[in-house]
Amino acid sequence: MNLAPPGHQVAPSSAKYTSEVEKGNRGAAEVLVYNGEMSPRHLLFIFLDGVGLGKADAVRNPFCAAHMPTLTELLGEGWFLAGRGRVTGPMASLAPTDACLGVPGRPQSATGQAALLTGRNVPAEVGGHFGPKPTPAIASILRSGNLFSQTRAEGGSAILLNPYPPQFFEGIKSGRRLMPAIPLAARAAGIRLLTHEDLVAGRAVSPDFTGEGWRERLGRPETPVLSPWEAGERLAAVARSHSLVFLEHWPTDIIGHRKEFRQAVEALDRFDRVLAGVVDTWDWEAGSIIITSDHGNIEDLGVRTHTLNAVPTVAVGQDHEQLAAQIGSLPDIAPAVLGLLRECRPDRQP
Ligand SMILES: [Zn+2]
Fold first, then answer.
1. Contact 291, 246 (CB under 8 A)
2. Domain residue extents for the chain
3. What confidence tens digit (pLDDT) does each residue in 121-153 have?
4. What is the pTM of this model?
């Protein structure tokens, strides 16, 4: 991967950033944190699995029934529909983003996520769309360089906000389960995967946003439950301390496969309230937000499978128009994000 700007040497962490164990984070592997001052620029990356731009179909498309005032205010009515092209509002833009990448078949999670994390046409490189977990070839591509590792190589700090339960780590260790693409990329960049302890301490955000899933399905009744707005507030707060803050929200894809219309509407409503918490407390001077997906699914509950639809990439913040203008397909996303972080870091200008 060559995600470095022209004439730019990729160096290990600059002296401006230090590697240290976060306070109170006992036994943690190192997490890069900015030394003293906050990062001059930061980007919050919200990844929603399986969200495409669909049709105006009130029976199949839950976006038609969802109440999403935050996104509607940012992007206008009907922003979630296919075929409307790019949308540019005063504070946010939407770029329809191709997930098929010229490769036959339905886009899948491993190749799609690898494409958006590496800037490479991963389905073309490995000869098809594969998922949900990375094959050895996809894992090798992710390990050779990705958005997390490049951010750190250029002196920025990066964090994956998802906490993982003990069962996840045990499954990986025993070989019973494969590491998904996003945590694999973070680990390859030397980023520690967060745990339930981090969630309880307020350093992580649950993939369901509120933390209720830990109480109901993971047997952790002591887990604090946030309102969706509070989860958004936490996302905005953590984003101030890092160059790149990434959250993977996967329930949208699960609900899409189950064709659960009511659950889908609730999930979309909830996400909009999370986003309200983000934008209500956002640092508009120094921060940008990007929301995107790996393939369509939830926007067409008439089928159980992923769709061929473009996915919405939404950019919010001062540079939204410039950021969105660079994005037409999944591999455009990582270079656009890195470009934004570089451009706004005065000591990093070529
Ligand atoms: Zn997916």
1. no
2. 41-345
3. 999 999 999 999 999 999 999 999 999 999 999
4. 0.88
